[in-house]
Design brief:
seven-stranded mixed sheet, mainly beta, 11 strands
Length: 123
């Protein structure tokens, strides 16, 4: 059974950094895309960053460009999200998703989701 497990969340002050990990099992890690989504209280879930597992292509939502970096270690079946220069507005539950054939921030394209990890940024 396909499974995604996130880790690395926590509480930091504005300007700090965190690295999130998304460990996958139960499916091949050489095709499709994995995307990080986030959802803040009272807000819609939004796509943050996506990586294509076949060619390593990456995509970012505008608000995190230049601050966040997504990467993958296919040998470890793990995708990372390095988050630098964190801002209070980055506070949210971050979840990784898999199952889409290509990078997209359309959440209904994804068939598998992790449980999420909380990121809290204080000012």
């Amino acid at each position: 059974e396909a499974q995604l497990v996130e880790s690395g969340g926590g509480s930091v002050q504005a300007g700090g950094s965190l690295r999130l990990s998304c460990s996958a099992s139960g499916f091949t890690f050489d095709d499709g895309a994995i995307t990080w989504f986030r959802q803040a209280p009272g807000k819609e879930r939004e796509g943050v960053s996506c990586i294509s597992l076949s060619d390593g292509g990456t995509h970012y939502t505008a608000s995190v460009k230049g601050r966040f970096t997504i990467s993958s270690d296919n040998a470890k079946n793990t995708v990372y999200l390095q988050m630098n220069s964190l801002k209070p507005e980055d506070t949210a539950v971050y979840s990784c998703a898999a199952g889409a054939p290509f990078c997209t921030f359309y959440r209904y394209s994804y068939s598998h989701w992790g449980q999420g990890t909380q990121v809290t940024v204080s000012s």
